[in-house]
Specification:
With 80 residues, the protein is of the alpha/beta class. It has five helices and three strands. The chain has a three-stranded parallel sheet with strand order 1-2-3.
Length: 80
């Protein structure tokens, strides 16, 4: 997770207490960290929290692109 001191350097940045809080009703979810908790997060739970037309931007190639599209996610992996 992000260090609380780091968040003070960015204006209007809100730090969430959980993944669920961070992604709930999101229009876009961007993964740009390699924290293991994101790799193991259940996709079906993620899908239930985000908006139906939400985009997933995967900057760490956490997810399999074919699987994400098959499961109905709007998905873009960076660097693939």
């Amino acid at each position: 997770m992000v260090n609380a001191e780091e968040t003070k350097q960015v204006i209007n940045l809100k730090q969430s207490a959980s993944i669920e809080e961070a992604v709930k009703n999101a229009d876009v979810v961007a993964f740009f960290t390699g924290h293991q908790e994101f790799f193991n997060y259940p996709r079906e739970k993620l899908k239930s929290l985000i908006k139906p037309d939400c985009w997933i931007i995967d900057g760490r190639n956490i997810f399999d692109p074919k699987l994400m599209k098959t499961e109905g996610f709007n998905y873009k992996g960076i660097g693939r």
